[in-house]
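Sharing a chain and its predicted structure for anyone who wants a worked example. Both blocks are below, sequence first, tokens second.
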Amino acid sequence: MSKTIIVSNCIGKLQDALTDSNRFENVIIQETYKLVDFISNLRNYDCALCILGNCNGIDQQVELIDIIRVISPHSRIIGVYKDEEELIRLIKEGIDYWIHEESSIQLGEEIVVFSLMNSSKKQSAQFKDQGFVPINDSIHVNFHTHRCFYNDQEILLTPNENTIVKALYEAEGQIVSREDLYETLKKLDNKHYPVGKARVIDVHVRNLRYRLGYDVIRTVRNEGYYLNVDNI
């Protein structure tokens, strides 16, 4: 099944909503303490998305992320966090999206739907018609939908990542300071995706480099960041 969702470690009402809803084709509820079954499901299903609850702590989520990346590398991953420390840890692990443990069911469902968007290959000419802007020959971003294609593979940008890339893109190759990026993120004022402290900018940039290529975003020591103009 092309849209199988594996939900692990019990995230309460959202878990029930996913299994009861007719919006999703196949949802597998997995108790993560049964690690053998979890690995078996990853191998036996064409898994599109894994949702990792945090009932057993952040360390177990990180362990499962490593397993997913090896067995089912094309699966997207949504993590559940309870505080800023867990959020930063998940960002560092390169998950695709995240949900606060107290988020509403409606928000959770919409994030799941967003994560399951089809990522079929598209030609560059089609990107422009769909609101995408070219970062370089390989990367196209739609800042309205937070969708990004890198070498024809879809990557979902988090709200904060999307805002950072947009700010750097609009600077047209000029340096944007860490402080200015932080102030831009603060204007989002989204309680479900807290900005955290200024150092979280560095975490977001490292994650973006890992996902989009290390030459795309450059650092100027003690000044800030810029998009590599040779790539634009």
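Comments welcome. The CA atoms of residues 5 and 27 lie 5 Å apart.
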